[in-house]
């Protein structure tokens, strides 16, 4: 593996998931693979899980880890080619990416959607520029449109709960939120589920249609109750409007997932990438129920990162 920015970088998803599960069984089996290698984790945005799980994954492989909170601690980056930098930006992304490549053998970068300029976000302006100038493999720690390490962890979590039927029904259900939230987790989950052997359904209120690029073969409905019927896994996530880009539309609070709504499911397991706004997106009763997989998902972030770093290390 030479980079990891989407499901397209995966040759065989089942094999990758099984390899991650083997690493979970024996996390230190390759503890010398990364000896003498350094991974840089660059965050332009906040993080708990991605930051800590990526560090742990790299340490399990024997790598040195350097973390740069580029959104806070580094010089303010310029993104425009040819910019006359006589304003607030101090360092061009081309210089930052090139210099970080001198210090690191692999670089992970987190760069959220700004949710202001749709074209810039769709084109992954920050990630694309960083990758253009970096001279080492780049791993997305969540970009403007996708969150592949989260989606791989979600696939690992689903694989750990096999059912007595060929294909589980997996439902991605939109949830209310008070803030404007990017589409990356939802887009990415949709992409990875369509690459998996599952029956996949997306449900959201009218106006919250995702970019069709990521939903092309998925069943999409605005009827949440119908979508939830017989579901085996229910993934809860908010996202802002894609059509009315980045906006929070006037929406009914009844889209919050509650135990009552789950009565039509097949005792569905509940998933959320976290952080979660409790009792806004999902009720406490659901999140704290025995069917909740939220902490398993968070734990599996270690092994999704570890298997990806391992694959890249093996090709350095
Ligand atoms: N799920 C996830 O990416 O969590 P963080 O934003 O805390 O990294």
Tags for this model:
316 residues; alpha/beta; Rossmann fold; four-stranded parallel sheet
CATH topology descriptor of the largest domain: Rossmann fold
* Straight-line N-to-C gap: 9 Å
At the fourth level of CATH, the homologous superfamily of the largest domain is: Aspartate/ornithine carbamoyltransferase
Please identify the top-level CATH class of the largest domain.
Alpha Beta
What oligomeric state is this? single chain
Report the radius of gyration as a whole number of Å.
20 Å
Number of structurally distinct domains: 2
CATH architecture of the largest domain: 3-Layer(aba) Sandwich
Q: What order do the SSEs take from the amino end to the carboxyl end, as H and E?
A: HEHEEEHEHHEHEHEHEHEEHH
Anisotropy-based shape: globular
Q: What compounds are bound to the protein?
A: phosphoric acid mono(formamide)ester
Helix content, binned percent: 25-40%
**Fraction of residues in β-strands:** 5-15%
Question: How would you describe this protein?
Answer:
The chain has eleven helices and eleven strands. The protein folds into two domains: 7-147 and 301-313, Aspartate/ornithine carbamoyltransferase (Rossmann fold, 3-Layer(aba) Sandwich), CATH 3.40.50; 162-292, Rossmann fold (3-Layer(aba) Sandwich), CATH 3.40.50. It has a five-stranded parallel beta sheet. A four-stranded parallel beta sheet has the order 2-1-5-6, with helices on both faces. By secondary structure, it is α/β, with parallel strands linked by helices. Helix 2 links the parallel strand 1 and strand 2. The longest helix is centred in the last third of the chain and has 20 residues, at 294-313. Helix 1 (13-25) packs across helix 11 and helix 2 crosses helix 11 (294-313). The mean pLDDT is 97. The protein binds phosphoric acid mono(formamide)ester. Residues 47-50, 142, 150, 273-275 line the site of phosphoric acid mono(formamide)ester (CP).
